[in-house]
Amino acid sequence: MEGVVAKPTEEGQDPKSATEAIAEVLPSSKFLQNVDLETATSKKSATSDVLAIVQELKAEVQAEKQVSAALRNELESLKLKIEESEAAKQKQQELDSLKKKVEEINSLVRQLLYCLNKE
User: Fold this and answer.
1) First-to-final CA distance of the chain
2) CA–CA distance from 67 to each of 21, 54, 55, 73, 74 (Å)?
3) Are 7 and 15 in contact (CB under 8 A)?
4) Is residue 38 classed exposed, middle or buried when 0-12, 13-18 and 19+ CB atoms within 10 A define those classes?
5) Closest by Cα among 36, 7, 2 to 19
6) Listed residue (3, 42, 43) closest to 25, CA to CA
7) CB of 23 closer than 8 Å to CB of 37
8) Where residue 103 falls among pLDDT bands split at 50, 70, 90?
9) What angle do CA 54, 37, 6 make, to 5 degrees?
10) Cα–Cα distance between 9 and 21 in angstroms, integer?
11) CA distance 93 to 31
12) Is the pTM value of this prediction over 0.70?
């Protein structure tokens, strides 16, 4: 390989092997595959790893969707219970108001009867 000059090593560093120097100059090539610096099996392994991660992420997303749907259902159920509770509270307030009116009417009737009996 003419024209390729290996970089000088700095103090304290081990000199690079010939294959490492070639790997720097030719980062990805058929030559590197042939000298076993970059193998097709490592690419296949990386691809299968990525596919496994993608499958795992899809499963997580699906699980999160199911949890989200369950939480939405629970929220709707709680909203219905709140509405029912508010309606019951309103009915109770109406009953209390009617009871108060009945008591007032009874009091007026008693007063009227008392006044009539005095005469």
Assistant:
1) 136
2) 53, 20, 18, 10, 10
3) no
4) middle
5) 36
6) 3
7) yes
8) very high
9) 125
10) 11
11) 88
12) no
- DSSP letters, 44-96, are HHHHHHHHHHHHHHHHHHHHHHHHHHHHHHHHHHHHHHHHHHHHHHHHHHHHH
Higher pLDDT residue, 41 or 107?
107
Residue with tokens 């929220």: 75
Each residue of 66-92: pLDDT tens digit? Answer: 999 999 999 999 999 999 999 999 999
Contacts of 21 (CB under 8 A, 6+ apart): 4, 6
For tokens 């000298």, the residue is 35
In the structure, what pLDDT confidence band is assigned to residue 46 with cuts at 50, 70 and 90?
A: confident
Q: Which two tokens stand for residue 63?
A: 């699980």
Q: Which amino acid is at 81?
A: K
